[in-house]
Amino acid sequence: MRNAHEIDFRIFGNDIQVLEIELDPNETVIAEAGAMVYMEEGIDFQTKMGDGSNPSQGFLGKLVSAGSRLITGESLFMTHFTHRGYGKSRVAFSAPYPGTILPLDLQQLNGNTLIAQKDAFLAAALGTKLAMHFNQKLGSGLFGGEGFILQRLSGDGLAFLHAGGTIVEKELNNETLRVDTGCVVAFEQGIDFSIQQAGGLKSMIFGGEGIFLATLRGTGKVWLQSMPVKKLIEALMPRGENAKKEGGFMSSFLE
């Protein structure tokens, strides 16, 4: 038996996907505020502080939980969608930018836990706990692009992440993988995440891969995205703005 609600789902689309959750009576799914696309008859929704994983949690605990979400860049509140009618009813969600929705069963992951970048969470079955995860490597916070504050999802139900572009799953067996810092979506508990310098001085300035790379080391699964939203914004930025940005960096670097 699972503690989390046992929800069913379908994913529609290719580049701009929609996640449809099918709920039985009294089943609940939690989602990022503003992610809902449509909901059928019988679905009731409430905006709450906290993920609802601990019903006996007091106001102070909920406030701390909501505050931690604010620190990770997420909304202060979460929306809880519950089927109050009969039969089955559906509610659908999508992310605010093009990409891929990744469904994961936390029960099948190491320690029933997933570490994800701060803006990756889309929705999850009620009973899933969301909390801050601090990367203990200071360099990850100073230079990692995504920062050293990540999200930790734990529980035994389904959780859904969103990533830009295409998602690539890699499984490490006591191995090391070096990745563009913005391309890391999530990884299993037991994977060590740190930031390292990207080669020599010439490669750092002119290589186009950035000054630092994320290093993932250990045993477990890693999920990567091909188009982080930061890169998408930069690609859509007028060429003059990009040149100004690069020139400013070069000037400050050479001073």
Automatic annotation (TrEMBL):
SUPFAM superfamilies: TRAP-like. This is TIGR00266 family protein. It comes from Pontibacter aquaedesilientis. The lineage of its organism: Bacteria, Pseudomonadati, Bacteroidota, Cytophagia, Cytophagales.
